[in-house]
Design brief:
CATH topology of the largest domain: Rossmann fold
Strand content: 15-25%
Distance between the termini: 46 Å
Structural class: alpha/beta
Helix content: 40-55%
Oligomer: single chain
């Protein structure tokens, strides 16, 4: 596996993966539509080391050209924000469901040796106690609770369907990623950049929602590991599995601590705009651990590294902050 295609490679997780793969010596091509969440500037430091193709995964011509002579496809391109999916579900279906089918069909016409589809823990829905294993994903989207997660559940089924037919497909279901290059519409970069602007963290409800925080550079490592070691036709959960679990309130308090802000002043509790949204996500990662991969779970240190990145890249996030905030004021 030497020649790699990363769809969505100018987005958040994609950018982290591209830097990782380039540093490991792979030949990397990126296919990205460069929507609001994808930034050409993300990849500028890799100029000359990455082949960037600006194109839509829903275009068979673009996908066919991009996947030619590729050994492995990492399919990350997706519409990914729950709030945006509430007002634009058709776009989520087109990109996440139809786009995934086109990616699979055109990639295998070009005899790609491995196709890694990046799904999400949200395909399982919320769980009050215990954790979901890979076989707990039911066919269809009945467990998913938003237009975003429903579209990802359907895409997950499509990819698994190809795997069951004998194609070299692996599905990865990661938890809540965070880290460098994350668009500030998402909770953690929104909170960090608010504090940098001397504005409070808007914490929804009582902040008791449980999320599994997975550092994006580690996700990149896991994706390469599964490319090399994963079994075709299988799904793998990818999670940090913090013990004890981390609530959103705890995360917000940690961010305040890292940034030397009094949480009494730095956190503003606001009514939850999505009171019926998934409360707790939890995944069983035994399958991946048995394969030989274990996640580094030092969350506080990883949050600190993330705060430092946004502090040092003010120009990057300030270009994006107004648009990111606009979805919360409509």
């Amino acid at each position: 596996m030497k020649n790699i295609l990363v769809t969505g490679g100018a987005g958040f997780i994609g950018t982290n993966l591209v830097y990782y793969l380039v540093n490991k010596g792979y030949n990397v091509t990126v296919l990205d539509k460069l929507t609001y969440a994808g930034g050409k500037d993300n990849l500028e430091p890799l100029s000359g080391k990455v082949n960037l193709i600006i194109g839509d995964i829903c275009s068979r011509e673009a996908v066919s050209a991009a996947s030619k002579n590729c050994d492995c496809v990492f399919h990350l391109a997706a519409e990914s924000h729950n709030t945006r999916s509430e007002t634009g579900p058709d776009l989520f279906y087109r990109t996440n469901v139809e786009g995934t089918l086109i990616m699979l069909e055109e990639s295998f016409k070009n005899n790609v040796k491995k196709f890694i589809h990046i799904s999400t823990d949200e395909v399982y829905g919320s769980i009050n106690n215990g954790c979901f294993s890979e076989e707990d994903k039911l066919p269809g989207d009945s467990q998913a609770t938003s237009a975003y997660s429903k579209s990802k559940a359907q895409a997950d089924d499509t990819a698994m369907g190809f795997g069951k037919e004998g194609y070299p497909v692996i599905v990865v279901r990661p938890t809540n990623n965070f880290g460098p290059w994350q668009y500030p519409e998402k909770a953690l970069p929104r909170w960090i950049t608010n504090l940098l602007l001397v504005q409070p963290i808007p914490l929804w409800g009582e902040g008791l929602q449980v999320r599994d925080w997975l550092y994006a550079p580690i996700t990149a490592e896991a994706l390469e590991f599964l490319m090399l070691n994963g079994a075709n036709g299988n799904a793998y959960n990818l999670a940090a599995n913090h013990d004890p679990e981390i609530t959103n309130r705890q995360t917000a308090q940690w961010i305040c601590k890292i940034m030397n802000v009094d949480p009494e002043k730095g956190i503003s509790f606001i009514p939850d705009p999505r009171p019926n949204h998934d409360f707790r996500y939890a995944l069983n990662t035994t399958k991946l651990q048995k394969l030989g991969f274990k996640v580094n779970t030092h969350a506080f240190e990883q949050f600190t590294e993330t705060v430092n990145w946004y502090t040092e890249h003010e120009y990057w996030w300030k270009l994006r902050k107004d648009e990111a905030e606009s979805i919360y004021t409509k």
